[in-house]
Amino acid sequence: MDTSHSEAVVYPPGEGPTGHYSGPSDLTTGRLGVWALIASEIVLFAGLLGSFILMRMIHPEWAEKARELNLYAGTLNSLVLLISNFFMMKASSAVADHREDDVKKFLSLTILLGFFFLLVKAYEYSGEFKHGNFPSSGGFWSFYFLMTGIHATHILGGLVALGILLNRAFHGTLESTKGRVALTGLYWSFVEVVWIFLFPLLYLLA
Amino acid sequence: MSHDSHKQSFISHYIFSTDHKMIAKQFLLLSIIMACLGGFMAYLIRWEVAFPNVPAPFFGLVSPDKFNAIITLHGTIMIFFVGMPFLAAFPSNFFIPLMIGARDMAFPKLNLASFWLTFTGAVLLVASFFVPGGPVAGGWVGYPPLSASSEFAGVKWGAALWILSLAMAFFSSSVGGLNYLVTVISLRAPGMTYSRVPMTVWFLLGSAVTFFFSVGPLIAGAFMLLMDNMFGTGFFLPAKGGEPMLWEHLFWFFGHPEVYVLFFPALGMGLDIMATFTRKPIFGYKLILGSTVGAITLSFIVWAHHMFLSGLNPVLATPFSITTILISIPFAIIIFCMFASLRHGAIRMELPFLWMVGFLATFLVGGLTGIFLGSASADIYLHGTYFVVAHFHYTLFPSVFFGGFSGVYYWFSKMYGRELNKKLGLLHLVLTFIFFNGTFWPLFRVGIGGMIRRIADPSFYPQYQQFANWNIFCTISAIALIASQAIFLWNIVWSMTHGPKAVKNPYDSNTLEWLADSPPPHGNWGAKLPIVTGDPYEYSKPGEAKDWRSQAQNL
């Protein structure tokens, strides 16, 4: 059934049976799907961040807890994600230009940095556990672990998608689904943007 | 293109199917099974209220703790595992691709995942009956602190399973909504411009989008509630610095739009049915769509009217009262458009039309009583009483059952290739209408009289003795209402195999689904797609021999 929709657009723009019909949509279904996914994620994180901001306003004393966070690790991670996104963009343009070796190289770098982000996060978590800060240690820590945990889950999901693409790239089967590289890149930037909200709210508002 | 030679194994055809029509039927079957379960719980609730401390036949004594669990699960099951699959997922899956002239959904595998997520959620919910501590008993709204810690409710695993089950239902509906949205945007047949999209599709889309943009915060809230229960956090526990009101905000930010998620599909199907059986165009196609956009927008800023009793800042009550009462304006416009559509129509009193009129008549009562509850001063007296129970059953029951059944009676022949028995359908309608009103109309009276909802044993309170006879009347009606649904079950099971073979377009309707075979084959259309050249509601056009004209002429 893969090709069944291709015949949906049988009229060139402006020449449909009605005279003004130019195909159902200029966007591919994949791109629309990822944008819809991002829209729903925005609402989820809006609920999460909105709740945190409200609670943070009621509890100014949470600033004390925020100071206990590892600001260096957080800053490093912000940079790591930013650079990872840079390589993701390079991978997308390499796909567009059919530079297969570059695709493999940049996808691998993106994934490596993604894993590095998670490693730093795990290091941070273990440090916080050592200082006796657990999810159950009060409101700030509950929010901190929940928000960074959900964000890390999104990183993990992105890594799975990137891993599948890289595997295809190494087996030379990426060509038929190469559009997915740009779509994954879209998602990857969204995960980056979420971190850009999380980082100042959690680490810098001390 | 090999639609005809598409051979599938039993499993890929009936179980892990990616065909939108099979997935729709799976949703329909699941919702019917869950409705039996939810209906049985409704019987137990009504039995205990009318005959306190008398063991209920087929169950036994409904003790207060069981009563709490049963009202919780009745609500959860009926909203998320009956309403959502029956009214949103089933018609969206079946009719969106058919009505826009597509061969399937944009993401068939995601569609498959959507069904199995709901299925998993239903299994988790049923599993919660059997875990130590029993199922969750904190009300379907899950208010903390009661729901947030096993110390208060005595339920740990039941609560966790309940939250996970809801999460599955949320993910399923979100994934489904994403699919419907992309499908409508990108898979419309040639010529199917936005102004030619039938109302059913528009309203199913409105329902999906409303769900999509309201559920996110509650998913965040569900994670918090799960952590409160499982990992000892205190998001919603005042003792640990948390805020129970936060949950109420997150819940009702979703909860109010959810009512419209369940109302819109019924309205959309009702409009299509109305055009077909009045043989004239819908009055105010664009006005209705504009009003719907207005209603959706307003539905996101009314949620706190569910919280007038919760300790909400009284200053906030007034703006939320105002937005709530404002929202009746777009709905009034839609209803007036529907009445105007009836005017001068050549009405055919067929079964789907009668069900749709039943939906309108009963829903109006629910809508109008909502205006009382939207006003904070009246709500503070009425909110804790059976008035609210009557009100929301008058909104949700008509949407899900009258609206849903009108759709099933309208399209059954398209779905299964055979006709339903019309006499049984009429009997089903008459009995459902009488006993539905018999069950819930007296509850308005009981509620205004001051009887508090959510109590197991009214005989414990001498002031409620005056309502004992009313409660018995309601309970008998409720049992008859539930029993009447057996007619429907018998009718679909018998008609599926023994009903007379259906023709392609029994009602002379314009929309595209009637051009497909009954039932439509895999891929819906033969070798070529329909090319749309007309509006969906071109009925009784002056100067034309027939009083209808199909949207596509090339099939």
Task: Give an account of the 3D structure.
The complex is a heterodimer of chains A (206) and B (555). Chain A contains six helices and no strands. Chain A is mainly α and 206 residues long. Chain A has a single domain, classed as Cytochrome c oxidase, subunit III, four-helix bundle (Four Helix Bundle (Hemerythrin (Met), subunit A)). The relative contact order of chain A is 0.14. Mean pLDDT of chain A is 87; it is low at 1-23. Chain B is mainly α. Chain B has a single domain (12-515), classed as Up-down Bundle (Cytochrome C Oxidase, Chain A), CATH 1.20.210. Chain B has helices at 10-15, 20-50, 64-100, 108-127, 150-153, 157-186, 199-230, 244-278, 285-299, 314-326, 328-342, 351-374, 376-382, 386-416, 422-448, 468-498. In chain B, helix 2 (20-50) packs antiparallel against helix 16 (468-498). Chain B is globular and about 70 Å long. At the A-B interface, helix 1 and helix 5 of A face helix 6, helix 7 and helix 8 of B.
Low-confidence runs of at least 5 consecutive residues of chain B: 1-5
What structural class do you assign from the helix and strand content of chain A?
mainly alpha
Number-wise, the strands of chain A total 0
The average pLDDT value of chain A, as a whole number, equals 87
* Proportion of residues in helical segments of chain A: over 70%
Q: What is the makeup of the main sheet of chain B?
A: none
CATH first level of chain A? Mainly Alpha
Largest interface: A-B, 47 and 54 residues
Per CATH, the superfamily of chain B is Cytochrome c oxidase-like, subunit I domain
The name of the CATH architecture of chain A is Up-down Bundle
Largest sheet of chain A: none
Mean pLDDT of chain B: 93
